[in-house]
Amino acid sequence: MKIKTCKVHVLVLLFSVVSFSCAGEGILQLNNPYTEDEGKQTVLYESFSERPKHLDPAVAYSSNEYAFIAQIYEPPFQYHYLKRPYQVVPLTATRMPEVVYLNPRGEKLGQGIKDGDIAFTDYIIEIKPGIRYQPHPALAKAAEGDYQYHQLNPAQIDAVRSLNDIKNTGSRELTAEDYVYQIKRLAHPKMQSPIAEIMKNYIVGFDEYAKQVKDKPKTGLKDLPMDGVTALSRYQYRIRIKGKYPQFIYWLAMPFFSPMPWEADQFYDQPGLADKNITLDWFPIGTGPYLMAENNPNRRMILLKNPLFHLETYPTEGEYEDQKKHLLVDAGKQLPFIDKVVFMLEKEAIPYWTKFLQGYYDASGIASDSFDQAIQFTGSGGVALTPSMLEKGIQLQTAVTTSSFYLGFNMLDTTVGGITEQSRKLRQAIAIAVDYEEFISIFMNGRGVVAQGVLPPGIYGFDDKSGINPYVYEWQDGRAQRKNIAVAKQLLSEAGYGNGIDSKTNEALILYFDTTSTSVDDRPRMNWYRKQFEKLGIKLVVRATDYNRFQEKMRTGNAQLFVWGWNADYPDPENFFFLLYGANSKVQYGGENAANYHSPEFDRLFEKMRNMDNGEQRYQIIQQLQDIVRRDSPWVFGFHPKNFSLFHGWYKNIKPNLMANNQLKYTRIDIAERDLKRQEWNKPVFWPLVLGVAVFVAMMMPALKAYRRRTRETRR
Amino acid sequence: MIQYIIRRLLYSLPLLLGVNILTFVLFFVVNSPDDMARMQLGQKHVTEQAISNWKQQHGYDVPLLWNSAAEGKNKIADTIFYQKSVGLFLLRFGISDSGRNIGADIKERAWPSLAVALPTLLIGLLVNICCALMMVLFRNSYLEQAGIVLCVILMSVSSLFYIIGGQFLIGKELRLVPISGYDDGLEAIKFLILPVLIGVFSGIGSGVRWYRTLFLEEVEKDYVRTARAKGLSETQTLFRHVLPNAMIPILTGVVVVLPLLFMGSLIMESFFSIPGLGSYTIDAINSQDFAIVRAMVFLGSVLYVIGLLLTDISYTLVDPRVRLS
């Protein structure tokens, strides 16, 4: 009787669970990681894996920091979203800056002047009137006109736990003074701006100002003028730089040159706020399309549409193909399209990828673990999405980054360095032997383009038609083909190392490769490098060390071979060739020339090229610079990585822009489609649970029987 | 007992100082203040002047342990060790090298860690004790043998496998809970189900075997035989007599880890995106943020000392024979 009752109970339980599961299907999304009701808001979901260190535009310099601040702060200029090659256009400025060349006496120079005559250049920038800051407590004013929160007492500060606890907010119009103030902030030694040392060389009075304000608080900057930066009127300011520096316009499109209201420093510098993590470095104040509504870098960060954002519209023109790709559907519409952007902390690739496939993230990169699941190679060597991705309506975007990775030689080294014919041949032989096509195929899932020179694609002067490295490649059947290893061996022999034996000592040539790749996962890569050198009979010794020791070796010139990379600050060849400029040598001057390459011929041409305007003459000099570097081979040109990004079908207006960081305002999401897909993809499955319960009950039956038997035995 | 507690707390002071010195030495053997500055300032355009400014602002421009250029007591006071350590003993953790208040971060991150660790511990304890008692109940039967084999299998599997497998099965395939994430208040529950379930499941193998050993040792003792002879059922014997007497080793294991629950679990928190303290320390080590590293190591030591003290006190509660003096 009892067993019968038990069975009935089990059946009822099973029936209930199955019924619940059936009722649940179609309406429940139990795995939805977002608990807040989106309502009718358009919400974009993104992720971040590492918390940004800084959100102050004077300090922030990493891509993960720009992902936030480029949506909040507005420098006077920006990159056109659709046009290529990259083009700087006005953002808060009314037009491109008026550039005035001056002689040493500060007098304006006329037409037809030589670059050498230019002592100073003035950039006169006029900003649009009527632009307002986001609502912020720093700008809140009391009825009598005083700032409400600039003199908080300890009790008020004690009551504040986050910026949102401060009730009132205010706003004011953006003025030219705010841009001037930010440049002063860049100079303040306490800000530790990463570009302060560079700007010292360009902006007039920058260095002197830094010394003048060294011991002063940030709040004192407002009333101390800087010689080279002046507000000419409420909406116009002038930056005076030394000599001619055409690349300065690119700096003006970076967040460093965003406006900062003096009230921000006044507010945040009040004692006690920093102890609560309420600082300008964490709670920005800008004029951009978004404002930071929540900053919890331990969990999530939320951007909300700035209710006071000025009128800015989607571009009405782009490249020829953009119309066909539906990139001009929103032409002329007011920006931004998205109401809220939620960035969730996601450290591990597996949950991130799963959530993307479930529709809970709108876009994703492709980790190497997921590559085969997402991408397949076509017969012609191209890439395409796999059928499972296509079935979900996922879109693939690829873009070759404006970055270069290379195997560098320490040119100060007695074996691989120097610009003698012998050392050149040794380096050229190694350049042929190290097969980066293979590297890209094995270690990068084909996500890269082999470098033929210093410049990556997309940078002025890059020649994709005929610009092969003739010391490593040759044309065969219309394609650039890596030279045969026999050529490399011949070069090695001419360098005095036939079959990898040093002809002077009769001993095997041993080279040392310094790297920070210390983990087990890095071993295959290191073995691959060894094998490349073995082709020439050279023994490569890998000296893996931690980051700090590696940096020290590089600074002191104790490394022999190393792998290094550079990501463009701006799309100008100067930003790459300066990596080989003698005056930037790492050992001698602490600069970015990690190879310590020094060629008077190269330096002379570089100095000529760097300040030239783009044109035929500059283009020709760039090609000459490429030729010199290819011949001298201070680097084995490695590769330019290729970004693969996936976007769901509801993600609109996608165009890779490797220079602009403020793309969010152009993004549009079809939330109706997303809701439908999420429901379709996330129906909970209950039957395995039911099965599990049944199996558990079945397993417990013999135990219960045994227990009863034992109890009866005990009683007897 | 009060005297005993005060004495133990005083003993812990040199211990904490030793831990602090050890952390300091180990950290600065590997990283110099220059390295830390470089790490914080990024990789581009970092000049010697910028490094010098950073060190000066963050208080790393003085000698590490001994300032021979200073006068009198300042030879010790004007050092990185002194300036960075004194506040710790007052639980003032200061500002991290990246500019955030460490105390505020710890306060915020301790709760999510606890939200995962406490239910995992309590449910795990309950499940493990029940399973262990059941195995003892069915000792010398095929059920016990099967249970032991199952425990050994469960113990042999890496916890990482449980995490990935659990996420795959319950989060991805069955779609019953979010695969990762966290929220405040009661909304956190749905994010905690999976990590707690996995935490409990991954601990069953070793936990059950450990408790089974403890119970088996007790179950053969004379008082248990007496209880049986008095006519108590096996269940009554186990729950009324064996369990209370096996509490001392159980308490030793449990109470000592109670304070450390705040410290969180690195792997679990990383995989489930739980903003706890587990990942806080590792992130700090990776970014060479000495201020956070020393604060977390110090906090860990303090909590461990507290845990040991609590264990001693708890002995007196479960075993009247134990006296603290």
What does this structure look like?
The complex is a heterodimer of chains A (about 725) and B (about 325). Chain A is an alpha+beta fold and about 725 residues long. Chain A folds into three domains: about 1-30 and about 685-715; about 75-275, Dipeptide-binding Protein, domain 1 (Alpha-Beta Complex), CATH 3.90.76; about 405-645, Dipeptide-binding Protein, domain 3. In chain A, the strands form eight sheets. In chain A, strands 11, 14, 15, 16, 21, 22, 23 and 24 form an eight-stranded mixed sheet that branches. In chain A, strand 8 (about 290-295) and strand 9 (about 300-305) form a beta hairpin. In chain A, helix 1 (about 1-25) packs antiparallel against helix 22 and helix 12 runs antiparallel to helix 14. Chain A starts with a helix and ends with a helix. Mean pLDDT of chain A is about 90; it is low at about 20-25. Chain B has about 325 residues and is mostly helical. Chain B has helices spanning about 1-30, 35-40, 50-60, 75, 80-90, 100-135, 140-155, 160-175, 190-220, 220-230, 235-245, 245-255, 265-270, 280-285, 290-320. The longest helix of chain B is centred in the middle third of the chain and has 36 residues, at about 100-135. The model of chain B has no long low-confidence stretch (mean pLDDT about 85). The interface between A and B is large, with 61 and 66 residues.
Residue fraction in strands of chain A: 15-25%
Instruction: Classify the secondary structure makeup of chain A into a structural class.
Output: alpha+beta
- What's the CATH topology label of the largest domain in chain A? Dipeptide-binding Protein, domain 3
Oligomer: heterodimer
Poorly predicted segments of chain A: 19-26
Gyration radius of chain B, in Å: 25 Å
Distance N to C terminus of chain A: 23 Å
Number of helices of chain A: 22
How many structural domains can be distinguished in the coordinates of chain A? 3
Q: Low-confidence segments of chain B, ≥5 residues, pLDDT <50?
A: none
CATH class of the largest domain in chain A: Alpha Beta
Please compute the radius of gyration of chain A using only Cα atoms.
Answer: 31 Å
Mean pLDDT of chain A: 91
Query: Which of globular, elongated, flat, extended, rod-shaped describes the shape of chain B?
Result: globular
Largest inter-chain contact set: A-B, 61 and 66 residues
Largest sheet of chain B: none
Could you give a short account of the major beta sheet of chain A?
A: 8 strands, mixed
Structural class of the secondary structure composition of chain B?
Answer: mainly alpha
First CA to last CA of chain B: what distance? 6 Å
Q: Work out the helix count of chain B.
A: 15
* CATH-defined superfamily of the largest domain in chain A: Dipeptide-binding Protein, Domain 3
